[in-house]
TrEMBL record:
Superkingdom of this protein's organism: Bacteria
Residue span, GH3 C-terminal domain: 390-495
Any Pfam family hit: GH3
PANTHER family in the record: GH3 DOMAIN-CONTAINING PROTEIN
Protein name: GH3 auxin-responsive promoter family protein
All residue ranges annotated as the GH3 middle domain in the record: 299-362
Organism the protein comes from: Polaribacter marinaquae
InterPro entries referenced in this protein's UniProt entry, alphabetically: GH3, GH3_C, GH3_M
Segments traversing the membrane: none
Length: 510
């Protein structure tokens, strides 16, 4: 009998029962006031008159009017650079204990995003919310006695000046509470290994000694890890070595494109729970099985704003125009893509995180990620978002009974002077190329009216290139972006796409 598991499950159930239905709108008003109150004596708070904003009749409206939008580049150029020069109380009180390194999906140079002790506390609180919400998924008591595999970046953080640096998954894992360490795998020693391939080899070698009940990590890297374990032990599927695996916590990207290839590695179904942890904070988590939408963490150190998605609001470099209107949680609607803006306890203010979202339940503050502002393909007016691209990939998987684990796309002018959407698909699909092109093109015409209009005007057509999925992993490895929070570029500009095509056609290019 799972005595400990029953105790833990009972505590989780009691916590969930005692908690009242969250009022997300009131949470957000309270969070904004706390943020402004705490930061009003910082350099940023004085410059943008936080004291006056707090004394205004409508704090949310005054905040919108007084503080401009920022992205990483503008916030670093104007404010965060001071932190690296040793100044304190810049955009948040004191100095950050950590910096999250993030090259994201757009380049080799790492961003250095402040992570304060207040943010660590907020992430931990959101993590506890995720754990307590497991009560809604009707998991057996013995699940709560199993090991949890968290596959992120290295926890061996680099010391620099008076702080530590690393990817957010490594920072979070290095701050797990003491009571969780007995469940945490691959364990502190293996988690500190910097080289991703070496770390996965150690995981494969030790896999038999662990009883994994849950996995957590970016889908692409979780799949590679599972493949390595299966190959190392000559298995048919991962459940032959981890029979009690019941939960996979995805994060960072939409799980849909990976669903088919992920399931192929399993011996039986698992519960998939989506989460949304970014370098800037723990944004949202799925709290119930009736939906795959995620609930915004409205009570833990982040104030959210939402800009209706419109290509006219976005500058060429992906930043946001200052005249773009924003709304707070009490004014959002369904069936509308929004550009996500956050203000946080790490001193990010009206910050363009780069993602677009859509609300699936306004009262419950439940969202789905629909794409990236920089991945919004609007060349020649096609207005194609990543969620529509993901849907098209899933359609092709079903149509041709195949797996397409990775893809990327560029609106490229070819030798004939015409624009085409040039797709690269990571798959073993053996099919006539013209059939793939027709199915993809026709699907997008039916799914997106702007794409259909563009196809009748400046967008000449679609081109499809089939390549081994390993080429995508090699590309990330070549750009020193393998493992951790790394995601593949879904949309590339022509200059970056030229690099990509040279790499694909020349594996030795470094």
């Amino acid at each position: 009998m799972a005595i400990l598991g029953n105790i833990i499950k009972g505590i989780i159930s009691l916590t969930d029962t005692l908690s009242t239905e969250t009022n997300h709108i009131e949470n957000q008003k309270e969070i904004l006031n706390k943020l402004l109150e705490t930061a009003k004596e910082t350099q940023f708070g004085k410059h943008y008159n936080f004291e006056e904003i707090l004394n205004s009749d409508n704090t949310q409206e005054a905040f919108r009017k007084e503080v401009p939008y920022f992205d990483y580049n503008s916030l670093h150029k104007n404010w965060w650079y001071k932190i690296h020069e040793g100044e304190e109380d810049v955009t948040w009180t004191g100095s950050p204990s950590y910096f999250a390194l993030s090259s994201g999906t757009t380049g080799k140079t790492s961003k250095r995003i402040p992570v304060t002790d207040d943010m660590i506390s907020a992430i931990r609180s959101s993590g506890i919310k995720q754990v307590t919400s497991l009560n809604n998924f009707e998991l057996p008591a013995d699940f709560f006695e199993k090991d949890i595999m968290m596959l992120g970046s290295s926890t061996d953080l680099a010391e620099k000046d008076d702080h530590l640096e690393g990817e957010i998954s490594g920072i979070s894992a290095s701050n797990i509470p003491f009571w969780f360490k007995g469940y945490y795998k691959p364990g502190e020693e293996i988690a500190k290994i910097e080289d991703w391939d070496e770390r996965v080899n150690h995981i494969a070698e030790n896999a038999k000694s662990w009883d994994i009940g849950a996995l957590s990590g970016i889908p692409a890297w979780i799949e590679l890890m599972l493949q390595k374990v299966i190959e190392h032990h000559n298995l048919e599927n991962i459940h032959e070595i981890w029979p009690n695996l019941k939960v996979y916590t995805s994060g960072g990207v939409a799980f849909g494109p990976y669903e088919k290839s992920f399931k192929a590695l399993l011996g039986k179904p698992v519960t998939v729970i989506d989460t949304y942890l970014a370098s800037e904070g723990y944004i949202a988590t799925q709290t119930r099985p009736e939906t795959d939408a995620m609930q915004l963490n409205t009570e833990n150190g982040i104030y959210f704003e939402f800009v209706p998605m419109n290509p006219d609001y976005i500058n060429e470099d992906g930043s946001l125009k200052q005249n773009a209107p924003s709304v707070s949680l009490d004014n959002v609607v369904l069936n509308q893509d929004y550009i996500l803006i956050i203000s946080t306890v790490s001193g990010a203010w009206r910050y363009l995180i780069g993602d677009t979202i859509e609300f699936k339940d306004v009262e419950k503050a439940e969202i789905k990620i629909t794409g990236r502002t920089k991945f919004f393909l609007n060349t020649v007016g096609s207005q194609l978002s990543v969620n529509k691209m993901d849907d098209a990939i899933q359609y092709l998987e079903e149509k041709f009974a195949t797996q397409i684990t990775e893809y990327t796309i560029c609106a490229k002018r070819f030798e004939d002077g015409e624009f085409y959407h040039s797709w690269y698909l990571g798959t073993e699909l053996k099919e006539d190329n013209s059939k793939i092109v027709d199915e993809l093109d026709n699907y997008l015409k039916g799914a997106n009216k702007n794409y259909k209009v563009a196809r009748s005007k400046a967008l000449k057509g679609v081109k499809v290139n089939i390549i081994p999925v390993e080429k995508f992993y090699d590309w990330n490895d070549n750009n020193k972006k393998k493992g951790g929070q790394v995601k593949m570029e879904r949309v590339m500009k022509e200059s970056k796409f030229a690099e990509w095509e040279r790499f694909v056609n020349n594996n030795d290019l470094k």
